[in-house]
Amino acid sequence: MLNSCAAIIQQYMENLDKYSIEQLRYKSEENVWSIGQMYIHVIEVAKEYIGHIETCTKATREEPEDKTGDGLKAFAEKEWPNIRVKLDQPPNETRNPDTKDEIVAGLEQVLVMLANWTSRVEEANPACKVRHGWFGWLNARDWFEMVGMHSRHHLRQKEILDEKLAEAGIR
Fold it and tell me: pLDDT category, 87, cuts 50, 70, 90?
């Protein structure tokens, strides 16, 4: 499980090498993220999900509820649905990075956090869960897997943002 999540985060790090800070901060439209904002979002959500892993591992109260239909489908396919998710917060609330180094540091921090939780996830009571707004009640192992699923989901968005960058001719 760690290898799968770590490989996706590593892919983000390798992709980062080809961008200048100007390219990372470029926004094709006001209400669309820059590539840098997307990176920041992926990092912040990974940290949020890892926080849910910790909550699940420390919990003593078991939750009888389970995943929603969408959650069951997503986990069976090991993939988020290929739809555009509208967040409660507007795209401008996700900040643009100041440097590439801060993105690298965030991705490295996510890798370390994942490595620290790998063995503990397996030991966690699977009945101790935290609710996801769309996928329902998830346990520590599910949340760990969600880091990779969510990050892969945004690789599709990154392709679109790369096209917008190429169209703008930003070098």
Answer: low
Give pLDDT, residue 131.
98
pLDDT confidence of residue 1: 63
* pTM exceeds 0.90: yes
Listed residue (35, 26, 32, 24) closest to 158, CA to CA:
35
SS (H, E, C) the chain: CHHHHHHHHHHHHHHHCCCCHHHHHCCCCCCCCCHHHHHHHHHHHHHHHHHHHHHHHHCCCCCCCCECHHHHHHHHHCCCCCCCCCCCCCHHHCCCCCCHHHHHHHHHHHHHHHHHHHHHHHHCCCCCEEEECCCEEEEHHHHHHHHHHHHHHHHHHHHHHHHHHHHHCCC
Residues contacting residue 147 through CB under 8 Å, at least 6 positions apart:
5, 9, 46, 49, 50, 110, 114
| 118-135 pLDDT tens trace | 989 999 999 999 999 999
In one letter, which amino acid is 47? K
